[in-house]
Amino acid sequence: SPTAGLYAMICGSLLRVILEFALPKDGNLILPFNGDEFLDYGTPQSSGFPTFFDVEPELHWTPGEDQCPQTRLEDYTGVDSLCAPLFSLIVFLVVQFGEKHTGKSWYCFPASWHWLVEPVPKPVHAKPVDDD
User: Fold this and answer.
1) Distances (CA, A) of 71 to 35, 41, 53, 63, 74
2) pLDDT 10s digits, 50-109
3) Is-contact 125 11, C-beta < 8 A?
4) CA 19, CA 54: separation in Å to the nearest integer?
5) What is the pTM of this model?
6) Which among 82, 97, 75, 86 has a CA at the least distance from the CA of 28?
7) Which of 32, 38, 31, 60 is nearest to 47 (CA)?
8) Quick one: which of 10, 15, 18, 131 has the most CB atoms within 10 Å?
9) Are 7 and 105 in contact (CB under 8 A)?
10) Is the separation of the CB atoms in 4 and 99 below 8 Å?
């Protein structure tokens, strides 16, 4: 029904806008998975060389003291774009079958907005004019 389509578009758009600003984004485009490869190692806390480098021992960094903060990467970019169409489909199906089951329209907008969901009559085709 046109009402189901209208509700699906409105609800999907609202969900998309809400999730766009509500979900955390860190700019690395990586979801927060488990494992050390998904940690943000940040900026180094020491300018020393790692212990496996062949340099003077005083130039090595000490792992216990110069540890950098390791927070989990967390970026939900794109999740809003995936959830909005699914939510729109759910809203569409609920309204469609709800209207069919109850036999009534679930349209709840003001009467001046009824042009949004009224079907347009099929155009009448005129006969072609001969150019003779």
Assistant:
1) 12, 7, 26, 17, 9
2) 788 888 888 888 777 766 777 777 778 888 889 999 999 999 999 999 999 998 887 777
3) no
4) 50
5) 0.62
6) 75
7) 60
8) 15
9) no
10) yes
> Distance between CA 71 and CA 76 in Å, rounded?
16
For 22-50, write each residue's pLDDT tens digit: 988 877 767 777 777 777 666 667 778 87
What are the residue ranges of helices labelled H in the chain? 2-22, 79-102
Which residue carries 């006969």 as its tokens?
Answer: 127
List the Cα angle 96/120/111 in 5-degree steps.
70
Query: Would you put residue 53 in left (φ > 0), alpha (ψ -120 to 50) or beta?
Result: beta
Please give the Cα distance from 88 to 109 (Å, whole number).
18
